[in-house]
Design brief:
- The chain is α+β, with helices and mostly antiparallel strands.
- Helices cover 30% and strands 22% of the residues.
- The protein folds into 3 domains: 193 residues, Heat Shock Protein 90 (2-Layer Sandwich), CATH 3.30.565.10; 121 residues, Ribosomal Protein S5, domain 2, CATH 3.30.230.10; 195 residues, Ribosomal Protein S8, Chain: A, domain 1 (2-Layer Sandwich).
- It has 16 helices and 22 strands.
- The strands form 5 sheets. It has an 8-stranded mixed β-sheet with strand order 5-4-3-6-2-1-7-8. It has a 5-stranded mixed β-sheet with strand order 9-10-13-11-12. The protein has a 4-stranded antiparallel β-sheet with strand order 16-17-18-22.
- Strand 20 and strand 21 form a beta hairpin.
- Helix 11 crosses helix 14.
Length: 594
């Protein structure tokens, strides 16, 4: 029997490595832009075609490379950043593994030219699927240009795995944002299919954030600064009143490297405790500077996860720094000694809805009747006494629950979260938010399928200035939004969207959060696997406009929710495949009392 274990060919090994490092065009953008920063570039240009599927090109004015270095750069584990294992704990550069360029060259056509200041001619190399096709001298300015064409050309399965151009462009813009925010002192330019999306000149951090997310963002920021022996923290948090329902503006940087850290995120949530409405998320742009020896960034191929040596201290310092910033800028409630405490509304009263004044009318009052003479009373209630039960015929999927024998069932609200109803054989406990999401989702889809335009005019139209990523999303969903009942007008000169009308299913106070949710639709993890753009849009609109946990419903609203739910085609699951209600049978109750 022959031996089974053998070494993989280099091109196969590189393709396997590419699967870990290069997942989509955004991964290429990240690696190439980080290389440009390591090369001490002051101006970095990003050019894309078809969201990076056809072309990702990064041009910088950095130090450049020699002809030998250019050839070695595409070999696996070839790097100028480390020479021994100890160097991993003293890293100050972005890249260090020597895997990125070899991985990119294994699954794309790469054309690179580079020139140092002391060289008269630039070196050029062309690689296709790990094979060097051409290497010679050309005329080019100082710096380096990497052009990556036809990504995953030799791995069709991976190419088919890529999402639509809108989704992939969104991922690229996210990576661009992370790098541009981390280095506000550098000049960044981004073009997509020949159109300029970003031109960010060197500036301070606040202006860089405003340049990316809109000029009004600057006034929403609160500076954070803290210096300790463990870590130095600086950056900005977003004022609580501008918190959003999406997690868009959340950025952590450790030694200028973007990271994802649920642990640090929890520290931010703890600092904002009591200041945010339910379902809203804080925004932040926070930079932590630590000794490289106290952290490990070599635990994930994309280098976005980090292990801290003293994470508990960092947690406490971060939480305290944010609380201090909120207090210093009077974002948190403060004591007012001139206020009469007797005029304060108690917490319990704040949580209780206002009661509608009851008006009692004495219909038997007669000013001409002699005093002391009582009129004859008529028992009006007896006229409305139900004498027989009316059956409700149902052909919905809920028939097997005994709904066909419901006779105007009694309903009540439990914990301001559930609506409880009854059948002849069981008790129904319905999750009010999920039920309403299902109802709205099917109504929005119906409007789309029938191309209906039921809308209500806004007395005061709402205007929103869109950044390039939001503009791309709007252009992709404009037709679907119109079909759902939105009346929109976009000014391409000022990049301003004017909302003149909204669907009848929405309320005017929901206009801004609704459009913000739509414009960040591709960041919703729950809708990532939707069947189509219309389906994805209907889910986001239903989730944003549905009644939420904590909402007090009247008896009529509770009954309408039950009726509308079981008129749906799929009343069992929410649009996000979550259970809407449970049933508690008589037998289950009897077991509880055994």
């Amino acid at each position: 029997m022959s031996d089974k274990i053998q070494l993989l060919p280099d091109h196969v090994a590189n393709q396997i490595a590419a699967g870990e490092v290069i997942q989509r065009p955004a991964s290429v953008v990240k690696e190439l832009m980080e290389n440009a920063i390591d090369a001490q570039a002051t101006h970095i240009q990003l050019l894309l075609k078809e969201a990076g599927k056809t072309l990702v090109q990064v041009i910088d004015n950095g130090e450049g490379m020699s002809a030998t270095d250019l050839r070695m750069a595409f070999e696996r584990h070839a790097t100028s950043k480390i020479t021994k294992a100890e160097d991993l704990f003293a890293l100050t550069t972005k890249g260090f593994r020597g895997e990125a360029l070899a991985s990119i060259a294994a699954i794309a056509h790469v054309e690179t030219h580079t020139r140092r200041s002391e060289d008269e001619m630039a070196s050029q190399i062309i690689i296709e699927g790990s094979e060097v096709v051409q290497q010679d001298l050309v005329v080019a300015p100082q710096g380096t240009s990497f052009a990556v064409k036809n990504l995953f050309f030799n791995i069709p399965a991976r190419r088919n795995f890529l999402k639509s151009n809108t989704v992939e462009l969104r991922h690229v813009i996210d990576e661009f944002h992370r790098i541009a925010i981390a280095y506000p002192q550098l000049h960044f330019t981004m073009l997509h299919n020949g159109a300029e999306l970003f031109d960010l000149p060197p500036e301070n951090l606040r202006r860089r954030i405003a340049g990316i997310f809109g000029a009004k963002t600057a006034e929403k920021l609160v500076p954070v600064e803290e210096q300790t022996s463990v870590t130095a923290i600086n950056g900005f948090i977003v004022k609580p009143e501008f918190a959003k329902k999406t997690r868009g503006h959340q950025y952590f940087f450790v030694n200028n490297r973007f990271i994802k850290s649920p642990f640090l995120h929890h520290a931010v949530l703890a600092a904002f405790e009591g200041l945010l409405q339910q379902g809203y998320h804080p925004g932040y742009f926070l930079f932590l500077q630590l000794d490289p020896k106290t952290l490990d960034i070599n635990i994930h191929p994309t280098k976005t996860e980090i292990k801290f040596e003293d994470e508990q201290s960092i947690y406490a310092i971060l939480k305290a720094a944010i609380k201090h910033a909120l207090g210093m800028f009077q974002v948190t409630p403060v004591l007012d000694f001139d206020r009469d405490p007797n005029m304060d509304v108690s917490y319990s009263q704040q949580q209780t809805p206002a009661k509608i004044p009851a008006i009692e009318v004495d219909a038997s009052f007669n000013p001409f009747r002699a005093p002391g003479v009582k009129p004859k009373t008529i028992q009006w209630e007896s006229l409305y006494t139900q004498t027989e039960t009316t059956q409700i015929e149902s052909e919905t999927p809920g028939d097997d629950l005994g709904l066909e024998t419901i006779a105007q069932p009694k309903v009540f609200q439990l914990l301001n979260k559930y609506v409880v109803s009854s059948t002849h054989a069981a008790l129904l406990v319905i999750h009010q938010q999920r039920a309403h999401e299902r109802i709205l989702y099917e109504r929005f889809l119906k409007n789309l399928s029938l191309d209906q335009h039921p809308s209500q005019q806004l007395l005061f139209p709402v205007k929103m200035k869109l950044n390039p990523s939001e503009k791309a999303v709007y252009e992709n969903y404009e037709t679907s939004l119109t079909s759902m009942g939105f009346e929109l007008e976009f000014d391409f000169e000022s990049d301003t969207l004017e909302i003149k009308g909204i669907p009848v299913l929405c309320q005017q106070k929901e206009v801004t959060p609704l459009l913000e949710a739509v414009l960040t639709i591709d960041t919703f993890e729950a809708v990532a696997e939707s069947f189509s753009a219309s389906d994805r849009l209907a889910k986001v609109l239903a989730q944003t406009t549905s009644i939420k946990t904590g909402k007090v419903l009247s008896m009529l609203e509770q009954q309408a929710l039950v009726d509308d739910l079981f008129a749906c085609k799929e009343p069992l699951k929410s649009p996000f495949n979550r259970q809407i209600f449970i049933t508690l049978t008589k037998e289950e109750f009897d077991q509880k009392f055994n």
